[in-house]
Amino acid sequence: MQNETGRPTIISRALLLLGPTGAGKTPLGEIIEQRGLWDTTCLHFDFGANLREVVRRNRPDQWISRQDIEFLTEVLRSGALLENEHFPIAERILQSFAVARNVDERTCIVLNGLPRHVGQARAIDALLKVKAVVHLRCSCETVFQRIHSNVGGDRTDRIDDDREAIRKKLAIFDERTAPLLDHYTCQNAQIETIEVTAQMTPTQMWEILNQRRKQPAD
């Protein structure tokens, strides 16, 4: 099946990792892909990592234009979110991932970093059915402690981890991203909350989550 762009439409279910920067979304997503979750095979889509790779590679392809790369470079520099009018760029990055990883209706995509606000969520609804949300609840001070100790092992070489940048990200999360909980609750998605501590490892998060033994495809 194809959408209006002529590219394949993604037909899949999804699980969304939702939490502030430093909460542990990326390492948890990697473990979920490695081990699966609730007896379901999963693929981890880390939007931030994919976006940074597009900029690092700095090479247009069938999905991303030179203009897109220049725009995304500025997004990374400023820490801004992709607004509704720029969602087609995010969609193409997701489509590229789906094609490369052979996503089909049996696949559960673990969304990490997309959607970041309700406008994006409404656009995602046309591509994926978000069946579950894993809410990594984490205080501001805990975020600073986790990033300082790199407890998840995913902060090496990050150039956007100074305290001012982190505070800006936390403010954006509270204002723009946290409302996604209400959005998906209204859609009857399964909400699973983990109270993240300063030293909680990704493996511990996965074990807590997997013990609940619920199915995102139900």
Q: Which terms would index this structure?
A:
alpha/beta, Rossmann fold, 5-stranded parallel sheet, 9 helices, 15% strand, globular
Distance between the termini: 24 Å
**How large, in whole angstroms, is the Cα Rg?**
17 Å
CATH architecture: 3-Layer(aba) Sandwich
**SS element count, helices:** 9
Strand order of the largest sheet: 2-3-1-4-5
Return residue spans where pLDDT drops below 50 for at least 5 consecutive residues. none
Globally, the shape reads globular
Strand content: 15-25%
Q: What composes the largest sheet?
A: 5 strands, parallel
Top CATH class: Alpha Beta
Work out the oligomeric state of the chains in this entry. single chain
Number of domains: 1
Secondary structure: helix percent: 40-55%
Q: Mean of residue pLDDT?
A: 86
The SSE order reads EHEHHHEHEHHHEH
Number of strands: 5
Structural class: alpha/beta
In short:
The chain has nine helices and five strands. The chain has 218 residues and is α/β, with parallel strands linked by helices.
Description:
The protein is of the alpha/beta class and about 220 residues long. The chain has a single domain, classed as 3-Layer(aba) Sandwich (Rossmann fold), CATH 3.40.50. The chain has nine helices and five strands, in the order βαβαααβαβαααβα. Strands 2-3-1-4-5 form a five-stranded parallel beta sheet, sandwiched between helices. α2 crosses α3.
Provide the fold topology:
Layout: E1 12-18, H1 25-35, E2 42-46, H2 47-57, H3 66-78, H4 87-100, E3 108-112, H5 118-124, E4 128-137, H6 140-149, H7 163-177, H8 180-186, E5 190-195, H9 202-210
Parallel strand pairs: 1-3, 1-4, 2-3, 4-5
